[in-house]
Every structure is written in C-alpha cells, then in structure tokens.
C-alpha cells in the first residue's frame, strides 16, 4: 500500500496542472488562500508549492499579495524552438546512422503515434493532441540513445505544452497542419533522407513559431477558467 501524497506535493501538482492545462493563463493572479481552500489544506504547504513553481519559472511571487502566472515570453518561444531544432535534427541523423533495423523500429513507433494523433484530431481533443505531439517528437529523440539529450528534451515538456495551448488558441488549423507535417517527417525518416528531414523539421517548427507568436485571432477560444481563476482577489 503506497504512502499518502504530501500536502505540499498535492498543492504543487494541482497548481501546476492548472497552469499547464491553460486554466490559469499568463498574467492571472492567484493566492495561497485560493489553493488552500480548493484543496482543503492550510496555506503552509501551498506556500512551499508556490516557491517550487517560482523556481521553475511558472509563478512570480509577491509577498502578502499572491502570485502571478508568468506568461510564455517571445524569447522563451524562440529559445525552446531553437533547442528543439538542434536536438531533433541531431537525433534523426544519429538514428539514420544506426542501421535499417533501428530506423524501422522508430518508423513503426511513429506510425502508431500518427494513428493516435488522427484519433485525437477527429475527436477534437486539443490538449490530448498536444501531449501526443510531444510523445511523437520524444520518440525520435529517445531513439538516438543519448540519455542526457533525452533528459534535456523531457525537461522542456512543460514549456512545450504551454506553447501548444497558445498555438491552438491562436490558430484553429494548426493541429491539422501539424498532423500532415508529422506524416511528411516520418516519410523522410523512412527514406533516410536526413537533409530533407532537417529542412522539413525547420519548416514544421516555423509553423509552430508563427502560430504561437501571432496575435490571438479567436479570444473566445481561450481555455475555460478553472476554480482558482474564478476570483482575482488576493489574501
């Protein structure tokens, strides 16, 4: 029988989940009191959770006032996409050099992911698709068999999730375009055409950059607010 989750961990996971799911948007003001009331706990573990989230760059704390969700900055978007291009291009090149068997295993796994993406796309599950998108690219990075590089990529997941939600809010067609681009990337990998893969990956990430950085076209399409965001009062 497993041990109970510490209250500070519960507060951390709850608040972080609200941020990553878009229920708490960049610029939203929250307080320890809101979270403690929502979870039925004292403010002390919530304070610990807020400190962790501040260290991760998700919250900015204001003593005795509350905390503000840190928006995804344009500089952060550029940094994440530049890192992704470097890591994913290198990973594809390395996998292509590991031999036909390794490449075939990766292509099979990617095609399974494409089927899952198609299902999520048909169901209109944007958040699920964003998670599947990350899993797709992580398969390529993981196949390069470089644990340090994979760890770096995994640690970018939170940033990529927030960027994905912003892209979805800005561009209704981005998910469908992404799916087609993924299909093309797999075809190039299967051929072992690393040069064309690099070019297609750059174009793919460029589409993400454009969707994330453009002004919101559909304000009404923003994610629905959660229980924390219902009030902007601070304690």
Explained architecture:
- This protein has 235 residues and is mainly alpha-helical.
- It is 69% helix and 4% strand.
- Helix 5 packs antiparallel against helix 6.
- The two termini are 38 Å apart.
- The model is unreliable at 216-235 (pLDDT under 50).
Which secondary structure elements does this structure contain, and how are they paired or packed?
Elements: H1 7-20, E1 29-30, H2 32-39, H3 43-55, E2 59-62, E3 66-69, H4 74-96, H5 100-123, H6 126-143, H7 147-155, H8 157-170, H9 174-191, H10 194-213
Antiparallel strand pairs: 1-3, 2-3
Helix pairs in contact: 1-3, 2-3, 4-6, 4-10, 5-6, 5-9, 6-8, 8-10, 9-10
Compute the number of helices.
10
Strand order of the largest sheet: 1-3-2
Average pLDDT, all residues: 88
Q: Please trace the helix and strand order, writing H or E for each element.
A: HEHHEEHHHHHHH
Low-confidence stretches: 216-235
Radius of gyration: 20 Å
Content of β-strand:
under 5%
Distance between the first and last residues' Cα: 38 Å
- How would you characterize the largest beta sheet? 3 strands, antiparallel
Percent range of helical residues: 55-70%
- Name the assembly state: single chain
Secondary-structure content class: mainly alpha
Shape: elongated
What's the number of extended β-strand segments? 3
């Amino acid at each position: 029988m497993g041990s109970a989750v510490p209250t500070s961990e519960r507060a951390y996971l709850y608040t972080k989940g609200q941020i990553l799911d878009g229920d708490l948007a960049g610029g939203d003001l929250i307080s320890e009191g809101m979270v403690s009331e929502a979870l039925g706990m004292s403010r002390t573990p919530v304070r610990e959770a807020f400190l962790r989230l501040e260290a991760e760059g998700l919250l900015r704390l204001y003593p005795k006032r509350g905390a503000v969700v840190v928006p995804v900055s344009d500089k952060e978007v550029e940094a994440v996409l530049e890192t992704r291009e470097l890591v994913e291009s290198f990973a594809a090149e390395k996998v292509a050099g590991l031999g036909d068997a390794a490449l075939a295993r990766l292509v099979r796994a990617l095609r399974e992911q494409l089927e899952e993406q198609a299902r999520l796309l048909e169901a209109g599950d944007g958040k699920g698709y964003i998670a599947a998108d990350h899993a797709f690219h992580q398969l390529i990075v993981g196949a390069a068999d470089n644990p340090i590089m994979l760890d770096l990529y995994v640690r970018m997941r939170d940033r990529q999730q927030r960027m994905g939600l912003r892209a979805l809010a800005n561009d209704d067609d981005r998910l469908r375009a992404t799916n087609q681009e993924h299909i093309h990337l797999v075809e190039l990998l299967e051929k072992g055409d690393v040069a064309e893969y690099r070019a297609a990956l750059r174009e793919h990430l460029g589409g993400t950059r454009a969707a994330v950085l453009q002004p919101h076209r559909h304000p009404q399409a923003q994610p629905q607010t959660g229980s924390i965001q219902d009030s902007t009062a601070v304690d």
